[in-house]
Amino acid sequence: MYNLLSGKTIIVTLFHVIYLQLLFKRFYSGSSSDDHCTLFADRNLINRRNVREDPHSAYRPDRDFLILEVKARILAAAFHVLGLKSRDEKPLHYPFPEDLPKWNKLQRLQFLHKAAGMIVDEIVIDEAMMNGSLQELVSYEERREIQKHLDVNEDGRFPCRFPGCNTSFKYNGKSRRRHELSHDPPVVIEEMRTTTSPTTTDQATKSSDDVFNYNAALLSEGLFFMNFLDAVSEGDGKRIMRQYKYLMLLCKADDPHSTKYALESLYQLLLVNGLSQKESEKFVWNRTVNNHGGLGNNIPHDLEVEHSNNFNKQGYCNIGANLSEKAVSRICYAEKPVRTISGKMDKLLQRFIRSGKHIQRFPVVDLDVLLKKLNESEVFKYQKGRSYRHFKGFERDALVNLDMSKIYSWLNDHKKKYSLGVKAR
């Protein structure tokens, strides 16, 4: 975070592991082997034994497995929306023009984007769900503003609501409420409540489709995760900050397990808009590093720090019994010049150095197996009454249990604390 006392910008760790953990917590369960087309069932189908329930213990296998699952569902969604029977056939619902081979690269790209837009509009985005969340938040703010203006008197103060009491208050806060409770009988005020967190009834469960809701949610959330990884690879700081807004809500929905991560996401958004323009630019764009040049070769700063630690540990081992704090500091300060000199010497001597990058072929066979299973189950064809045993009554919206009224109060509370220089521990 940004230290307001020292004025130094500290590297912020990206939350890709945290978001992957939230995804596995929602979509992965060792008790869901009977629920076909779920993560654990697919893991057994293609025999991915290195996948674990906790991404902290197996981040790379879990990440690669999730990306494979998302790509399989992208193809399954394309088969359903575009009317494809196999990869070799032409789509029935989106026919190819006869002069398509004569089109230039830009025209073909626009044609592909239009097809992708059809898939996103029908499967990925649920307009009713998004509009409902926005309308709920807006209506709550409107009711707060209306109540705020109705409660004030001619002097702009909040009067005591006990009949006959002439006491007034500058703010509608604890002092006003404490005074009203001191009366006999105390003033009873109905709290504003929003219509969030609808309970799932038996009738709603029978009319829903757990298979469709699960796979549509996995596709949309998985695409968000892949977009996060792509933003890091491209070094797109603004895109990363936009995704932190949604990640903040996801962490808040996982309350109380991810409260600190939600706060950290909020503080980053506050710093972007609260710092000077120069410091804000540093904070947004100083999140990744590119050591080799080229597009899409950026890595997170925390991974670069791990590489630096591994390099410096070689020097620590060579010191042996003479290891001291002064020697460690000298090695750390000399890291960059030593790397530069060593690199030039290796290049001059034409020394062969093996790359530490693990190059793996894309698992096409596993993708075909997953795609066949998804198409046979028609996961993206909404059918009322289909249900899972473990994921019964699965909600497509990850924020369905999020109380927007509490989010509104939570944001205002921490904005006030931030303006006073108070940070929650």
Q: Can you put this structure into words, describing what you see?
A:
The chain has 425 residues and is mainly α. The protein has 16 helices and 6 strands. It has helices spanning 16-27, 39-45, 59-82, 105-124, 127-151, 174-181, 202-207, 210-234, 237-253, 259-274, 277-285, 301-319, 325-333, 335-348, 364-377, 404-419; strands spanning 2-3, 8-9, 158-159, 168-169, 288-289, 299-300. The strands form 3 sheets. Strands 1-2 form a two-stranded antiparallel sheet. Strands 3-4 form a two-stranded antiparallel sheet. A two-stranded antiparallel ribbon has the order 5-6. The protein starts with a strand and ends in a 6-residue tail after the last helix.
Q: Which structural class fits the helix and strand makeup?
A: mainly alpha
Outline = globular
Radius of gyration: 28 Å
What's the order of the H and E elements?
EEHHHHHEEHHHHHHEEHHHHH
What's the total count of β strands? 6
Sheet bearing the most strands, described? 2 strands, antiparallel
Number of helices: 16
Query: In percent, how much strand structure appears in the residues?
Result: under 5%
Low-confidence stretches: 1-11, 192-201
Q: What does the average pLDDT come to?
A: 84
